[in-house]
Amino acid sequence: MLPWKSIIKVNKKNNRAIYLQIADAIINEIMAGRIAKSHKIPGTRIMADELGLNRKTVSLAYDELLAQGWLEIIPSRGTFIKNSLPITNHQSLLHNKTYHSGQFVETISKLPFTANEDLSYAVNTIDDGTPDYRMAPIDALLKTARSISKGNIGRSVLLNASSYGNKTLRKTLVSYLSISRALNGSEENILITRGSQMAIYLLFSILLKKDDNVIVGDLNYKNADQIIQHLGANLIKIPLDNTGLIIEEIERACLENKIRAIYISPHHHYPTTVTMPTENRLKLLELSSQYNFAIIEDDYDYDYHYSGTPILPLASLDRSGNVIYIGSFSKILVPSIRIGYVFAHPKVIHEIAKLRRMIDKQGDPITERALAELINENEIQRCLKKAVVAYKNRRDIFCAKLKNELPNEVKFDIPDGGMAIWATFQNDIIVKELVKKAKQNDLCLNIDPERTPQSCRLGFTSMNEEEIKVNLNALIKTVKEY
Fold first, then answer.
1. Is there a single domain that holds both residue 185 and residue 214?
2. Helix, strand, or coil here: 222?
3. pLDDT digits (tens, 9 = 90+) for 129-168
4. Contact at 8 Å (CB) between 270 and 220?
5. pLDDT of the residue at 150
6. 44-60: string of b/e by CB count within 10 Å (b at 16+)?
7. Is 387 in the same domain as 336?
């Protein structure tokens, strides 16, 4: 006889009736192939004694299994697992798993990267460069969104959404981008996305075929690299210096390979924060025209510049239509409010709109319309001015303290803008180990420790002056203990 006491586990504290727990257990064993078709099961009295239960409870379980079609009674012989069940591949009871994945699961493509975990944000945190949510106009955005949804235009906004994004926001961005970035076009040049990440994926999806070649920095935005590889294209990595991607190396790569596109963040290269000078930008545009490749310009933090006026985007200098410009409001608002945009030739916009419709039919029209209102009311611009002043002050405090306290342990250049420094630790300090050791001093280093062994981004914008002091003291202590 089968070891029914081991097979059927009854939990008397469970809200599900005991007779149903018995029925569930037997069904699971049948489905797993561990009890074969036509197997005879014990009578109710024997089963009750085996399980230490009342016979009536076992009778109710058998009645339930009979009613569901799992059992059959053969007169003068007893009760059996129904022979006509479409169950195959009888397995040994030694194979004691109660759940098995379908065979198709084993054929699912294994992506060569991990998903973000839902991690709580520690109080004492140094990240790799995010805005301070306390300075963002979140309340104004949400208040405006509520007003729109309840007002006269609410029906139109809610029911007439487009794969291109909210029409009012696209029209508003025409003027906004012209004034702030000298990008001159029309709403036909603009598509709204859920942040720059979606924009990168959509663009490379329509641009790339298997085995196409894409130029990226030797150090680059990891998610962009992963998207390119996921789509079957090849990464051609170019070394960097204090001007960004070395332009002579880009030209050499063009001579040796057929290049489909280059992904670049020339304003503050990610992750190293260096800025590409104007002469290199002009040379890159020449190479794009000469070798006919697209330039994906990811301008993720253009708005944060602390020394004079920022260099205008490549897209503002482009006359060939080869530059595709990506921007985002997530660095002005907060990362969880996903509003980005693409500025490109109308044919490019039309193609990514068709693809976007398959995965995200209409975006977030209420929030997009609310953002348009805040731009038209100059609320976004006012908040940006305050943030730039505050972030510059935080940069100066952050960098001064690091240079004074750790002059020999960490090297970095003070960036002319952006939200982080690119720090290189000395004395054989390994970033991955530093992250672990910082936890012992109640400091969360929410950074990427895998990029290079001894270098990482250290963000300064998300902390106020007191938080910078507390968190850097913990970092300094950790480094000295290391």
1. yes
2. helix
3. 999 999 999 999 999 999 988 877 777 777 777 899 999 9
4. yes
5. 84
6. beebbebbebeeebbbb
7. no
